[in-house]
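User: Please predict the structure of the protein below. I'd like the answer in structure-token form so I can feed it into my own downstream comparison script.

Assistant: Understood. Taking the following sequence of 360 residues as input:
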Amino acid sequence: MNKLRAGIVGLSRGHGLVNALATHPQVEIAALCDLNPGILSEIGADHKLSDRQLYTDFDQFVNAPLDIITIATPIEFHARQSVAAMEAGKHVLCEQTMAYSVADCEKVVEAEKRTGKVYMMAENYSYFHYIQEWKKIIDSGKLGKIHYAEGEYLHEITDLLVDPKTGVRQWRYTRAPIWYCAHCLGPLLTLMGDRIVKATGLASGWNKYPGETIAYLDMEVGLFQTQKGSVIKILRSQAVVRYPDMVWYTLYGTKGFIENGRGGWGATKGKVYFEDEMPKEPGAKEIECNPVDVNAPPEARSGGHGTSEYFMVRDFVKAIQSGTRAPFDSVRAADFTIPGLLAHESAMQGGVWMDVPLLS
């Protein structure tokens, strides 16, 4: 079987995805695209690419002889580049989130349907090892019906909003915190097997950075009603004074609960309680919450987020080879993206409830 030829655009974030794709035995890195010739040459040399396989122009890159295009550019370009790649006959692995508007999400869904190409949003947190282990627990019924869940993604990145050395505003400068909630909402909806139908949001204002853009909102919270009648709350900030940075999840079911620790990004101690198996005293027991699958091969850590990218890439390639839709196809990507867009719109209107369209 011939190897799938992969190209990657956007090498700052995309570097980890290049490495993850390169670990797959049926994939070869065949082209790279970036506006920065320095990083382009450096990563190109790592993968022994010739000058003709390196591009600074996306419109030329998208028509290169490739089977896969991986998109890791700023989010404002995701929809246009995803559509262009599928129309050019390429399968697409696109960084999250899907887009900055509902209309652009609809364009990607329509393009996947029209072209028949595989689209997958690279929601890598859903592939953290402990999330995959939780999925087994929830599917076994030990927690009963999940009726409430929370996620918090608190990650201070003000140096990525404005370059502290040059003062240049960077692409995240206009991104509302709750727009980037798929790292929380994606894993929760995956664990629950659910979709969002209503959204509302509130923000605490600009106390830390008065007079700044929506990116500097102190905190932004989204509250969501699911199709199955459950409730989800997501808290997001990219300017909060909170160290270490944190991603945290908790899910409550009719027979128990599960959550990870609040100690940062690495392996933490979480808690789980099964009503049918554990007494009320002393209650919940500790569990390991490791983003790394320690049984995976060493190269599985090459993506930079535990072993998540390694397994994510394998699901993407499997979908291409089997002619099936990817786990996080365009419809599911919209499920993870649109609620955050509408929660922010709601917050700017004082917290009105908004209907979330379910694309199909």
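That's the full token string. Residues 4-125+309-329 form a domain with the Rossmann fold fold (CATH 3.40.50.720).
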